[in-house]
Amino acid sequence: MNNLLKEVDNDKVLYIENIADFNNNQLLKNKKLCIIKTNFKDLALIKKLAKVHPHLDLWLTSENITRKDIFAANSCGIQNILPFPVQPETLHEYFKQKPNQSKIDAKFNEEFLKNKQILILDDNILNIELLEETLEPLNLDIHSFLKPQDAIASAAEIKYDLLLLDIMIPEISGFDAAKIIKNSSLNHNTPIIFISALSDAENKIKGYDLGSIAYIEKPFNVSVVQSQIYNILKSKSLQDALEETRETFLAMVTHDLKTPINAEICALELLLKNKSANALEHEIICDMLSASKYMKTLVENLLFKYKSENNNIILQLEPYPLESIIRKCIEEIHYLTQDKEQKIMFKNKLRETICNVDYIEIKRTINNLLTNANQYSLPKTTITIELKETEHDFIIEIINQSDKERTKNLKEDIFEKFVQYNRSTKTVNTGLGLYICKKIVELHGGSIHYEPMASNKNKFWFNLPKCATQR
Asked: SS3 for 170?
């Protein structure tokens, strides 16, 4: 080793034969690299030396190296473990590449890394410390957990930018923890990286099937992991910026469209009051009014989606008779049903229908359901809307009759975003109406459902707690 060191700049590197005998820290003051010969039983002393000299690169060298030894060294934060004696080419390559290190450190100071929230889950404190040290140059906000339940609870309250999950955890595996976190409202789209000593293809495939964007094997190379996470966060930052731009544009356009649409509706309603219009003119005005109201619904649905997904929806709950809301909604789609020669039958045998609701949002829900029923019902059929109650809830049911193919294809996922079953019809549709109904009902503490019935009938129903509070 001494002959080898003569080939490089000896002022920058120090070789230690036995760490137990080393007690002169001053020798390391201006060094860049320290090579320590080890039997891997002295890792505690090596780790202590690394903490005293955090900017010093440490290499371990040994005549006998096992996978277990490498993992133990990695757990102490040391990544470079080389066979003894160290090859000259390795040292030459190190000093050749070292001047570029400042460029690597500089890139980790980029603006997009600031305030990034990272979750680490591992039941081994040494592994957590190693990951924290690995990510330290990126200046991230790191939340580390030894217990999966604590990590899951945190993911329910904090929106993370990246999840780093170990797989082999006694209580709940990393795979199961990922499934639970993916079902949370805040982190259903958060990227996941599984980090594990398991290197078999089966576990890697399982990880990717769960939505993992990378699978890192232990022991890992610090520089490679830093680069992986840096580029993952960079890509996510760019995607988030594009999504924010798109959503802001969408919100701005939909908001600005509301004013001219409302003005058009008012003008058309005024024309309808003009008794001098002949039958043809009256029919044309009714068609235009129906189209304008439908366009208003589409615009409001898009605006609601933007607000709900940015947590900007706050219900204005007030006692209001549900019967009045339903009758107002029936009145507003009168021209749509008239065009298809449909009828709406309202059934209500309740004496008391006052419920604590947000009038605008529940009206939007019923309007969406009735518009949907009108759009997909056969001509000359009857749409039934019924108001019922249980001990704790009001229940609103809407039943319509559509063609056999549509009834057969409808599924519970129709309430998901952008799901449509109208490919065979030439209609304008965002695929947001039922999704928004679900969001509004759930905000009121209720739930919404679909049930197929006999004779190609479809039943949509939702419940509202009689004492609703925003969820």
From this structure: coil
Q: What tens-digit pLDDT sequence spans the chain (471 residues)?
A: 666 666 555 678 888 999 998 888 888 877 888 899 999 999 999 988 888 887 788 899 999 888 788 888 887 878 788 888 888 888 777 776 644 444 445 456 677 788 889 999 998 888 888 888 888 888 889 999 999 999 999 999 999 999 999 998 888 899 999 999 988 888 988 999 998 888 888 989 999 998 888 898 877 777 888 888 888 888 888 887 777 776 666 666 765 676 678 788 888 888 888 777 788 888 888 888 878 877 887 777 776 766 666 665 678 899 999 999 999 999 888 877 887 889 999 999 898 999 999 998 899 899 889 988 988 889 999 999 999 999 999 999 999 988 766 656 565 557 775 445 444 443 444 457 788 889 899 999 999 999 888 888 899 999 999 875 555
291 — phi, psi (to 5°)? Answer: -65, -40
Residue 16's beta-bridge partner residues? Answer: 36
Q: Which two tokens stand for residue 199?
A: 């290197």
Cβ neighbours for 84, distance < 8 A, ≥ 6 positions apart: 1, 37, 61, 62, 63
Strand partners, 82: 61
311 burial level (CB within 10 Å; 0-12, 13-18, 19+): exposed
2-103: CATH number: 3.40.50.2300
Return the closest-CA partner of residue 452 out of 390, 389, 393, 399.
399
Paired tokens of 305: 């989606």
Fold agreement between 2-103 and 108-220? yes
- Rounded CA-CA distance 33/211 in Å is 39
Q: Write the single-letter amino acid at 260.
A: P
Q: Which residue has the tokens 């070292």?
A: 98
| Integer Cα distance of 58 and 78 in angstroms | 7
Q: Quickly name the fold that domain 108-220 has.
A: Rossmann fold (3.40.50)
- Residues 369/372/378/380 CA torsion (nearest 10 deg): 60
Sheet holding 162-166, edge to edge: 141-145, 117-121, 162-166, 192-196, 212-217
CB 263 within 8 A of CB 269: no
**CATH classification of 314-465 is 3.30.565.10, yes or no?**
yes
The answer to whether 236 touches 161, Cβ cutoff 8 Å, is: yes
The distance in angstroms from the start CA to the end CA of the chain is: 68
Residue 460's DSSP bridge partners are 398, 450
Instruction: Output helix, strand, coil percentages for the chain, rounded to the nearest 5.
Output: 50, 20, 30
Domain ranges of the chain: 2-103, 108-220, 241-313, 314-465
DSSP 8-class letter at 197 = S
